Automatic annotation (TrEMBL):
Organism: Enterococcus canis
One of the GO BP terms on file: carbohydrate derivative metabolic process
Taxonomic placement: Bacteria, Bacillati, Bacillota, Bacilli, Lactobacillales
InterPro entries cross-referenced by the UniProt entry: PHI/rmpB, SIS_dom, SIS_dom_sf
Protein name: SIS domain-containing protein
Pfam families, per the entry: SIS
Domain of life: Bacteria
PROSITE patterns: SIS
GO molecular function: carbohydrate derivative binding; isomerase activity
Record-stated family: Belongs to the SIS family. PHI subfamily.
Location of the SIS domain: 23-163
């Protein structure tokens, strides 16, 4: 367990604080936030969208039947550890062509996703394609650090928006 915690800490220490701050500013500037990811990245993205809703923002998850069309003044958060997942890259390109800001979250800035994004947030954790080193399977290290980084972004957004824990709790589902 200590090795895993050290891996996570080591990766988080390598994340560029300026990229994080730029991501926070971009997310705070959009009318709505659309989240896109496949597999475990997509699952982390759904958790991120939920937390964005809790702090009063308007998120949607690409691929859900209730997701509206994305517009020019929205923000697309496209997540791919490798930065090469064809669906993610293709939809991010489509969003960029219509003028939507794209925050690409990947382990490689020079990947197709990293190079086409308006802003990139590099999380240099190991991925299933072999980027980085880890004792853990496939993209586990990327997924873990992604989750923590996205929660940190939500925390900072909540502070900027002056959303308290009580405020966020009022947005939490009451149909459980």
């Amino acid at each position: 367990m200590q090795t895993i915690l050290k891996e996570i800490t080591d990766v988080l220490d390598k994340v560029d604080p300026q990229e994080v701050e730029t991501a926070i500013e971009l997310l705070g500037s959009g009318k709505r936030i659309f989240v896109l990811g496949e597999g475990r990245s997509g699952l982390q993205g759904k958790g991120f969208a939920m937390r964005l809703m809790h702090i009063g923002l308007t998120p949607f998850v690409i691929g859900e039947s209730t997701t509206p069309s994305i517009q020019k003044d929205d923000v697309l958060v496209a997540i791919s550890g490798s930065g090469t997942t064809s669906t993610i890259v293709s939809l991010a390109e489509k969003a960029r062509k219509q003028g939507t800001a794209v925050l690409g979250i990947t382990s490689k800035a020079d990947s197709p996703l990293g190079t086409l994004a308006s802003q990139v947030l590099v999380i240099p954790g190991a991925t299933k394609t072999g980027n980085g080193k880890s004792i853990q399977l496939l993209s586990t290290l990327f997924d873990q650090t992604l989750h923590i980084q996205l929660d940190y972004i939500c925390l900072e957004l909540s502070r900027k928006l002056k959303v308290s824990n009580d405020d966020a709790n009022k947005q939490h589902s009451n149909m459980e």
